[in-house]
Hints:
By secondary structure, this protein is an alpha+beta fold. 28% of the residues lie in helices and 29% in strands.
Amino acid sequence: xxxxxxxxxxxxxxxxxxxxxxxxxxxxxxxxxxxxxxxxxxxxxxxxxxxxxxxxxxxxxxxxxxxxxxxxxxxxxxxxxxxxxxxxxxxxxxxxxxxxxxxxxxxxxxxxxxxxxxxxxxxxxxxxxxxxxxxxxxxxxxxxxxxxxxxxxxxxxxxxxxxxxxxxxxxxxxxxxxxxxxxxxxxxxxxxxxxxxxxxxxxxxxxxxxxxxxxxxxxxxxxxxxxxxxxxxxxxxxxxxxxxxxxxxxxxxxxxxxxxxxxxxxxxxxxxxxxxxxxxxxxxxxxxxxxxxxxxxxxxxxxxxxxxxxxxxxxxxxxxxxxxxxxxxxxxxxxxxxxxxxxxxxxxxxxxxxxxxxxxxxxxxxxxxxxxxxxxxxxxxxxxxxxxxxxxxxxxxxxxxxxxxxxxxxxxxxxxxxxxxxxxxxxxxxxxxxxxxxxxxxxxxxxxxxxxxxxxxxxxxxxxxxxxxxxxxxxxxxxxxxxxxxxxxxxxxxxxxxxxxxxxxxxxxxxxxxxxxxxxxxxxxxxxxxxxxxxxxxxxxxxxxxxxxxxxxxxxxxxxxxxxxxxxxxxxxxxxxxxxxxxxxxxxxxx
Length: 591
């Protein structure tokens, strides 16, 4: 081994593309006697124990050229029967066939990995420098993209990389393949965007220009003065995997891994911005905002990650929810969407919360704490028992922002920047938010946070929106919401996916998994209609409110008495006039 290598050094070989196996060698220059190594059980930003060790195999160890014993004492931890007298060499393989942003992937077309899936943690040496050498598949023309600092690499990016510690190493994913690559600067800072799986019609120039606007808007949001000097990174990389179906992202310290439907990418012939492209821009905005709000400002419980188990916090409503509030709002401030498009997106968030009975069961602080067992493990009862800390957290941010603006003392933009200074861009507690709010307004905000965050009280959305020139209309909803159902309609069959608490479907006795085959008016039971789409109920029943629903469950047929309610509504937001008032303009423009 080279003397200049860091004491902890990994070699990652991506040549086994057909078997989807990364081959890893780990050099530990100065091991402890009985050195302990382990693989993380979760990846920061995705709050679920994912058991990455299930894909690790053939772990072997040598010291001074001789094999030494490897003993596993935990699902993801091993003891090496070694001395502290010579360097230790470990070799192992990791199966990589999860096409998501959270783990690792390797085939003949593309490679991707997070360090949490591939890099064993050397206990006791986490704060030492870590090196990583990346080897390309033989004969390939692949290139590499990563936020990690390169030391000596070839033109394609394969070679040596350096991290200051283990946390940095596993917070810099790698993308490999024959991807599209583009570059731009935002506030003088270099940014790179790579995309795997884009079609020939993809308009890369459009995506770069729009992403540049997002980045500049967000850098200036956090750092109004000398943004390039104060941004928490010197270079940033977007890594996007475009697939047939998929959506999501995972933030990292100076990069993000994204996945989207390739049809949501902007096309060369796109005349009008599609809903899918707006959604993609919102995802880019969200993950980029996390560079400050969760990667730097972060829950105090995350000051140092514990990779061996769940890391609990009640603050995801702030870090995910407030980020969700700003992701679309900053698209508006970047002039990528107009007022009407912004209100449509806000309206969707509001209805997602109001249509979830779980908001009356679980506070958004509880939802944050329970993310490990509820949010990432959703089932048919999820909407009845939980509330999303993304959506309700965004509405808490909205309520705080509009209350501050209505009182004329400050706004949430100033509070976020104040928290950056107060917490020195580091660990944050709820007490810090309360202190910053009180400092900027001269009054306590404990009452508001108790009601909005720590209880299941309804948020004062109508009052606050109307005070900012936004009218709330209550319209008749789609049939599924009217009945309290979530369904899948495919091949002429209406399949019940979830039955919402307190709704007409629950009162009738429907259950998740039912197939709704037919319906008849209660007054004319002899005339039964085959039901292929839920929205056809109005056509089949006319003004009748009493019906008989024919459903099948476990090969049995049931006739259920169903009453169609008329007191269910959905929200629709509109502006009071085409020219917004000064308060509304200040909110949307960030003044």
